[in-house]
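Second attempt. The first submission of ABC transporter permease had a stray character pasted in from the spreadsheet, which I only caught after the job came back as garbage. Lesson logged: always re-copy from the clean sequence file. Corrected sequence (454 aa) follows.
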Amino acid sequence: MTTALVKDAPSTTPPAPAPADGRRRARRRGRLVALLFVLPALLLLGALVVYPVLFSVGRSFYDASGTRFVGGDNYAEIFRDPATLKAIRNTVIWVVVAPVLLTGLGLVLAVLVEKVRWATAFKLLMFLPMAVSFLAAGIVFRLAYDEDPDKGVLNAAVVSVHDVFEGASPYPTVRARDGQGLHKDEDGSYRTEAAVSPGRTVALPLVGLPAKDLPDDAAPAYGAAAREAGPDELRGTVYLDFVPGGGGKQGEVDREESGLPGMTVEAVRDGKTVASTDTASDGSFRFTGLDPGSYTLRLPAANFAAPYDGVSWLGPTLVTPAIIGAYLWIWTGFAMVLIGAGLSTLPREALEAARMDGANEWQIFRRITVPLLAPVLTVVFVTLVINVMKVFDLVYIIAPGPVQEDANVLATQMWLVSFGGGNNQGLGSALGVLLLLLVVPAMIFNVRRFRRSQ
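This time the job returned cleanly.
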């Protein structure tokens, strides 16, 4: 009886918790721990990204002082301001040109590097510019693009090549002595005012050349000027009408005065050049075999041409392509390494099968390699588009002040309008919002590509 009562008494032991409740509590605990770890990053993200974006959006609806609400006037001003429109045009040029060139260069180099013995060393050299700050790279290229051939390495090379095929004149500063029988034409050449004929000796006085800049082979002109011309020849002397230390008589060849060698002299009759010669070391020249009659002696403008100074890389026309060139130097290694990583994962069986079927390397590259690399190429291209839209440092540093407006992109225009003298942070905020709206679609596209690849 007692035993039965004991058996029928209710048990005081609590029931074991259901497994589902334990899993839910564990998940909640895991979420709380994850939130605690993520919270600092979220706070930083909110302070450095979310809040500035929201503040810029709100600020874009106010005037320069930030006190008066102007609605969409700042956005309308973007498309009325010529400087901002030029910045938008330059941004479009950057987006169209730079990512295409970088992706193409990266693809070509990645394919070629696979056939190079020292591929790793080559990749390292190509990737090194990524370690250089944009500030340092901008200073380097600002010097490289300098128009002075003595400073700018690019113009030094251009001038050297030019001078090989077309020599520079040694007399760019020389001019005729006023009132001594030479007249300057509109094309920069000089001609004798009075007609001359065979049997005469003519002196052509020039000035404007420092004695220290005389050619090394220049000889005194006095002896040449004293020679008499034969009856069938026209003789003359081109000389520097200047005596070091002063003295001498203008228009006459003195004993201390030097001839100008290598000067081209032409005999002109009825508007046509009938003979041409170059002066000797003492400045003398002679024409023989001329028909009797009157002639005009001319010193062509090429004798006085200024030396070739190279290309104005940082002028209004070429400043944007020049800065894009600097950007290519920095980012080509990045594109090559990423595309090379994708290239290393390609199935070699497909490439070998194509070779077995008789395809050449160009066909393999065009019909197999590029299609298989399409996902990688797309990611690289879109990443570069995002980066190009935000380019600021190179444009601001490389472009000289007088052509800064011709090189501006949206990022530099936004800074100049807000802080670089414009002091209109309402318009600057509107430009920042516009830049954000342009970048966000590319970022969304890239994120989706990453998710699909995973």
